[in-house]
Specification:
Layout: H1 7-16, H2 21-36, H3 40-55, H4 62-70
């Protein structure tokens, strides 16, 4: 939807999306394909972030994700 620039076009596009578990599986496969098609650094980052989201006990905020990304192993300061 990032390239849709009016509310009408967004709603129209959303209305055309598939529904149900098959649609969810397709969306998941498409997302994984996009992740796998990125550079190795972005691929590694995406897998890390997805693991945080998957194993979190509650939904993480954008700020929490940014803070988590700033932490590096064996470093004493945030980047």
């Amino acid at each position: 939807l990032h390239d849709k620039f009016t509310v009408k076009i967004v709603k129209s596009t959303l209305g055309k999306l598939s529904k149900g578990s098959a649609a969810l599986n397709d969306a998941y496969k498409d997302a994984i394909q996009r992740i796998e098609g990125q550079s190795s650094e972005y691929y590694k980052l995406a897998k890390t972030v997805l693991s945080w989201i998957t194993y979190a006990k509650r939904p993480l905020t954008t700020t929490e994700m940014c803070c988590a990304l700033a932490v590096e192993p064996d470093e004493t300061e945030l980047d």
